[in-house]
Amino acid sequence: MADSMENKAGHNYYLDVPPASEVFFLKGMDHVDWGMKNRLARMFNPKSGHTVMLAFDHGYIMGSTAGLERIDIVIPPLAGHVDVLMGTRGALRAAVPPTLDKAVALRCSAGSSVLDEDMSHEVIGVNIEDAIRMNASCMAIQTFIGAPGEKTSIQNLCNTIDAGNRYGIPTLGVIAVGKEMERTTKYFLLATRMVAEFGAQIIKTYYCDEFEKITSACPVPIVIAGGKKLPENEALTLCFRAIREGAAGVDMGRNIFQSENPRAMVKAVAKIVHENASDKEAYDFYLSIKK
Q: What domain range is 162 assigned to?
């Protein structure tokens, strides 16, 4: 067993060497089953190799939040400009038309609200049968590394990965940063690599310093979380830097639906992710639509 006291920090990430790929266009996915590849190809654009995900699962811990008071009004006009809708089964069934032909990242973990000081003790809130009924393209499980509920969240993740593997449904491991944890390169190197080694096919995490190390050391695709609401130009710069430094996509929520012009913002994000636009080009595009 590895001795953490003798463990040396990694130093050679081969940042100038692209990951090997034999058949499939997504990093680390050459040897998964056909059905899983088919679902991944719905989530990630095969031409760009990237994805724009729209997260609106905030209500499962936050209740009604600004911008998402009426999901049935807010989400459908934005759906045509993204690749993936990330939500809970309750919100999807009640407020999102099933005629929207978009991949679904189904929130499958459930836990305490924001009123609880420790939200790390989550459970699996959606079983594999309901994920299949929801036609989920992937199942999203929150994973708390370094928090009191770490062991439980890892068990939730592994159980979901096992269930997904039986039916060809990928698991999205969502790296959760607790109140006592710092958003450092060291932390994200640990958390993303652990979740990938447990078997998650996609990782969602936050952008940080030396982000290219995170994407290089992780053997599966990484999608960045948008996080808190930023000014539109700053959010687009975050997106641009992440893609430039190896992210396979972005999963934005508040930076889109709380934007002054959500439709313009989501289209600007897609310019960066799928069309290699710079952050300045994307912001100019945003302003042109805004007018």
A: 49-290
Place of tokens 């700053």: 234
Sign of CA dihedral 191, 196, 198, 201: positive
- Whether 2 maps to a domain, the answer reads no
Is 40 within a domain?
Answer: no
Over the stretch 192-231, which tens digit does the pLDDT of each residue have? 999 999 999 999 999 999 999 999 999 999 999 998 999 9
Whether 153 is covered by a domain: the verdict is: yes
CA 113 vs CA 59, 120, 152: distances in Å: 9, 10, 17
Give me the catalytic one of 37, 102, 204, 213.
204
The amino acid that residue 12 corresponds to is N
Q: Is the pLDDT of residue 20 over 70?
A: no
* Cα 260 from Cα 257, distance rounded (Å): 8
Supply the CATH number for residue 114's domain.
Answer: 3.20.20.70
Cβ–Cβ < 8 Å for 59, 238: no
* Beta carbons within 8 Å of 280's beta carbon, 6+ residues apart: none
> Is 290 among the residues known to form the active site?
no
Cβ-contact 195, 143 below 8 angstroms: yes
**What are 119-150's pLDDT values in tens digits?**
788 899 999 999 999 999 999 999 999 888 89
The label of the residue with tokens 């407020």 reads 95
Q: Is residue 122 part of a domain?
A: yes
Cα–Cα dist 195/227, whole Å: 20
Angle at Cα 170 formed by Cα 169 and Cα 172, nearest 5°? 140
- DSSP state letter for 181: -
Cβ–Cβ < 8 Å for 83, 52: yes
155 CB-near residues (< 8 Å, 6+ apart):
none
Token couple for 109:
């973990």
Domain count for the chain = 1
Torsions phi, psi for 153 (to 5 deg) = -70, -35
